Automatic annotation (TrEMBL):
Xref: Gene3D superfamilies: 2.60.40.790
Location of the SHSP domain: 30-142
The protein, known as: SHSP domain-containing protein
Chain coiled-coil ranges: none
Family: Belongs to the small heat shock protein (HSP20) family.
PANTHER family cross-referenced by the UniProt entry: HEAT-SHOCK PROTEIN 20 FAMILY MEMBER
Signal peptide from the UniProt entry: none
Organism domain of life: Bacteria
């Protein structure tokens, strides 16, 4: 008789929200990188710009933050690693965060700016008039 244990992987009976609504991030992307607290992300459109703010305490924006834009999608990646040493004892904490959002219509991808102050990353995207205005489609009747 064998004593080999078989590991079973259980998947939740609930689907990921990103499977239902493609614009939402998956739950896995919302995992915290700082001490068990989720990262707070807010976005808003006002004064002719789209602005996204993410709390990223303990992250060095010069080395550990990567912001990309492609096909109307803005992606922020942040990675945190910390090492504490006291009295010959050391602790390591690390984690990563990725968030992708769809930019609003008229986003000027060539003039996006980002800055970080006191652990809050702010990404500003100027908005211009969309290239193609709204179009109405006539409904035809059959026969």
């Amino acid at each position: 008789m064998s004593n080999v244990a078989v590991q079973q992987h259980h998947r939740s009976s609930w689907p990921e929200m990103s499977d239902i609504f493609p614009g939402l991030p998956s739950w896995a992307n919302l995992r915290p990188i700082f001490g068990g607290h989720p990262i707070k992300v807010e976005d808003d459109i006002r004064d002719g710009k789209y602005e996204l703010k993410a709390e990223i305490p303990g992250v060095d924006p010069d080395k550990d933050v990567d912001i990309t834009v492609r096909n109307g999608m803005l992606t922020i990646k942040a990675e945190r690693s910390e090492k504490k040493e006291t009295n010959g004892h050391s602790e390591f904490s690390y984690g990563s965060f990725t968030r992708t959002v769809a930019l609003p219509s008229g986003a000027d991808e060539d003039h996006i700016k980002a800055h970080c102050e006191k652990g809050v990353l702010t990404v500003s995207v100027p908005l211009k008039e969309p290239k193609s205005p709204e179009k109405h489609i006539a409904v035809e009747r059959a026969g």
